[in-house]
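ugh finaly. both done.
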Amino acid sequence: EVQLVESGGGLVQAGGSLRLSCVASGFTFDDYAIGWFRQAPGKEREGVSCIMIGRNSPYYADSVKGRFTISRDSAKNTVYLQMNSLKPEDTAVYYCATDPSYASSSYLCGPNSPFRSWGQGTQVTVST
């Protein structure tokens, strides 16, 4: 059974940093695409950053480009999202997701994302 467990969320002041972690189990980590999404109250879910299978060319949403970095550690079956220069508009519940889809990184993070397995989410709150 595919399982994803996120951690690392919390309350941080604007300009601060957080690192989210997502520990995966139940599947061969390198055979799956993986990504981070977020959803703020009253807003649509947004693909933040995604990595396709077999390539290390992540997609980043324009809203986080230059501030967030996604990385995956195959030895630990973990994907990270390093978030720097946080802004109040980054406040949301952040989810990691995975799927054996061979879609491109940008498609993985798009509105028709094929991700079928999701974590429970971790809250990130950025105060002014």
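ok and the 2nd:
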Amino acid sequence: VQLVESGGGLVQPGGSLRLSCAASGFTFSSYSMSWYRQRPGKERELVATITSTSSRTNYTDSVKGRFTISRDNAKSTVYLQMNSLKPEDTAVYYCRANGRNDWGQGTQDTVSS
């Protein structure tokens, strides 16, 4: 099983980033997928979830209205569009297939002026 996150970087407050997570080694289309983040000095937290068919999405309150999770089952990829970024969004972002305990290396997102 592989989960490869990409798309992070350094962005100014108010800016945007689009994260991608390419999955392999399991039946991607059968799993709901989530994005997590680990902010400096904090525990890993759930950010957003999308069901296997994209019928439902859920977000933690701090990112509602700013982040959008989506997926492309044909490409076995899940995305996280992050807009109106704030310094407190600085974190390493990870994706995970719900019900599995596989983690990728994460992608660093730094929001700073």
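summary for the 2nd one i guess: The CA atoms of residues 17 and 82 lie 5 Å apart.
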